[in-house]
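Sequence only, no structure available. Ideas?
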Amino acid sequence: MAENAKELITTIKKLKPATAKGDYMKSIYLSSTMSPSINIDIKSV
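Reply:
I predicted one. Tokens follow.
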């Protein structure tokens, strides 16, 4: 799951439009269907 999350974040960063300024992602939360969400530290990924 961690590898999939890293790949998702990397892909989103690559697809960021050139015209977008500032922070493109401010926060990311991950959860399964019936569990509480956890905050993912973007800078550590």
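Residues 2-44 form one domain.
Hope that gets you unstuck.
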